[in-house]
Amino acid sequence: MSAIQGETFQSRSVQVKVLSVEQGEGRGARVRRSIGRPELRSFDPFLMLDEFKGGKPAGFPDHPHRGFETVSYMLPTSEGIFLHEDFEGHKGTLGPGDLQWMTAGRGIVHAEMPGNDKIAHGLQLWVNLSSKDKMCEPAYQELPASSVPVTTVEGVTARVIAGEALGVVSPVYTRTPTSYLHFEMEPNSRLQQPIPEAWNAFAYVLSGSGTFGQGSQAKVSDAHHTLALTKGTGQDGLEVVAGDK
Questions:
Q1: How many helices (H) does the chain have, and how many strands (E)?
Q2: Residue among 73, 128, 135 nearest 100 (CA)
């Protein structure tokens, strides 16, 4: 398996580039939000993307969700952990590299609060459910870091949260077909990631910089930017070349 699909690979381009501006959320918490802001409000099935970073006493006390899924992913480099508990008594801990895919369905009330005195750093993505699934029974898929598939090819490391990358497939079931991939790229490494032609897609830069797309349409982006991608016939996916540091 190669990180490069071939010379005939046609990349999507960056249609909209949005800086994720820090804002208050929950109880004293700070997040960087992109999807869900006016610039990216209609981007089905994605409803919201937050990068969160913080610790005690800030957190997200009891709050409701209904009709969609929340995907909480603690970055492997996070030193902090989060504790989760819902109104039906389900409890869990989200540590470095851990994943929680929560289907709110017909409704759930839960809280997410820091579990130690260190800084927790992660992402939360909201994924819309189709009308037939909006009133389904609430459910959880919880994967510790050791169960999230990881592979490294040609300087590109992929953590496959949902979907497939570099020949590795996630065990997560997605009611709304979704691919969720965390790539770490060595300087100047190159990736061509296939994306189904009909899907909306975006990239979010956590750190460093890279060039997204091909030729005259390629755009450079650095940390905390969300890149909404074009969608059209003949576009195979996204090509990324990592920066030199």
A1: 0, 23
A2: 73
Alpha-carbon torsion 218, 223, 225, 229, what sign? positive
CA distances (Å), origin 35, targets 20, 48, 191, 210: 9, 5, 24, 20
**DSSP letter string over 53-101?**
EE-TT-BEEEEEE-SEEEEEEE-TT----EEEEETTS-EEEE-TT-EEE
* pLDDT tens-digit map of 66-115: 999 999 999 999 999 999 888 888 888 999 999 999 999 999 998 888 88
Residue 186 CB burial class (10 angstroms; 0-12, 13-18, ≥19): exposed
Say if residues 143 and 97 touch (Cβ distance below 8 Å). Answer: no
CB 153 within 8 A of CB 200: no
Residue ranges in the chain modelled with pLDDT below 50: none
Q: Phi and psi for 85 in degrees, rounded to 5?
A: -150, 135
Rounded (10°) CA dihedral 104, 60, 112, 137: -10
Which pLDDT score, from 0 to 100, does residue 88 have? 81
Residue 105: its H or E element: none
